[in-house]
């Protein structure tokens, strides 16, 4: 519990310093708001439902986008793991594309799909599909061959072999990639939402900028961090712990 | 004498008409007659001229060399040989997980094309699924067959009881001991109700007490279910303890050197002097091959 004490002290000092600097009025409050200003913005945002709507819209988008990129990534990764040709050609391309920040897909998205829902989805998928694909490919290769053999031996074929054997068997190896894919998808979503009146969290952030409302900008940033943290902690960690329990893996400390 | 090395495969009376089984076997021409009689009977598993060649680093390696073998329905055949003699590969061929370079595998007279649930292989590493509970592992083959959930559950319960693991139905694989995992693998294989059970050194990694216990259980289950079992091992005593018949393999390329019939009543005991005696005879025959395999290992490592 020593670490909790340290964290509390750290945040107390940080917020204290924030209050102090804001009190000094070096910058006007609309550029450097005090913590209570940010709290008020958070309260107001939830009170007039604009934050709830933004969260709902953004979560729906990320759900669709992430599901798409997992589906595509798993499929591509498996194909690459089974074909040497694809691995050498597409595999190389994937790795080089991964160095591209997801923001770079925005201009293409806007030119192809206009300022639309599809453009945002495109950016989410492009931002996260690569890490899912690459981890699925390596996961499929690291996975012991015995599972596939045992599955075939017990009569699993084609889609059944994939759904009931190959996919669950590769999960411990691809989990890191799935998590990374989610983090990338989340970032790409916020970036994508900034480009037009999209109702999502990204747009709220831009609206704060347009209105010169620094409190709102910081409030939305806190919201984005909180949601990212909750999804990672609640969904992925739970899933990870379940997996470790079933497989008897020692939990990562 | 409890063991008669001169006798051939075909002398196993478990699938011979009793009239033939009683015949004297010292006479070569009689043995020939027996062979013909058995072939008319259509064995459960028949291997015809199986040859397997690997191409590793350009140089071809002959793993199996013209294997001819017949196993009758309900027979317990043990295959012994030094490590690297291709005896595990033989099981993979029968399971249909691998194709021979030439020759055919026949099940009930029908050639094998790929895996099928009439033949289940229990792998040396078992290949139990760690993401499924013990019960779900046992149900797996049935689920693939499209059998409804209720029936699956009943069958899984039955076979878990057979291997005495009922109270571990909801455990995960890593929570079980080595011997318990072996029994799960056995239950999983039996649940699909295969005609032929192929076992690849299943008890090699176990301690002696657990192994003895599992021998008793396997014998009991075999007697109860009447499956045909082909059991690969490098443990000669195990082979003599379990098999109706023991086939000795040569070291690289794998050939059948000799076959022994073990005419001992069941249930057997591994401490039984008659079993030890059989084992010794088989071992005398096998020793030369083991030496060859050891020589090869030294040559590679030096």
What does this structure look like?
- The complex is a heterodimer of chains A (253) and B (302).
- By secondary structure, chain A is mostly helical.
- Chain A has a single domain, classed as Orthogonal Bundle (MetI-like fold).
- Chain A has helices at 2-23, 35-47, 50-82, 84-98, 106-113, 117-142, 145-153, 158-193, 201-210, 214-247.
- In chain A, helix 5 packs across helix 6 (117-142) and helix 6 packs across helix 8 (158-193).
- The longest helix of chain A has 36 residues, at 158-193.
- Helices cover 39% and strands 21% of the residues of chain B.
- Chain B has nine helices and ten strands.
- Classes of the chains: A mainly alpha (253), B alpha/beta (302).
- The interface between A and B is medium-sized, with 22 and 27 residues.
Q: What's the helix and strand layout?
A:
The complex is a heterodimer of chains A (253) and B (302).
Chain A: H1 2-23, H2 35-47, H3 50-82, H4 84-98, H5 106-113, H6 117-142, H7 145-153, H8 158-193, H9 201-210, H10 214-247
Chain B: H1 18-21, H2 28-40, E1 45-56, E2 59-71, E3 76-80, H3 87-95, E4 102-107, E5 110-111, E6 119-122, H4 134-144, H5 149-162, H6 178-191, E7 196-200, H7 208-225, E8 228-233, H8 236-242, E9 245-249, E10 256-261, H9 273-301
Parallel strand pairs in B: 3-8, 3-9, 6-7, 7-8
Antiparallel strand pairs in B: 1-2, 1-4, 4-5, 9-10
Helix pairs in contact in B: 4-5, 4-6, 5-6, 8-9
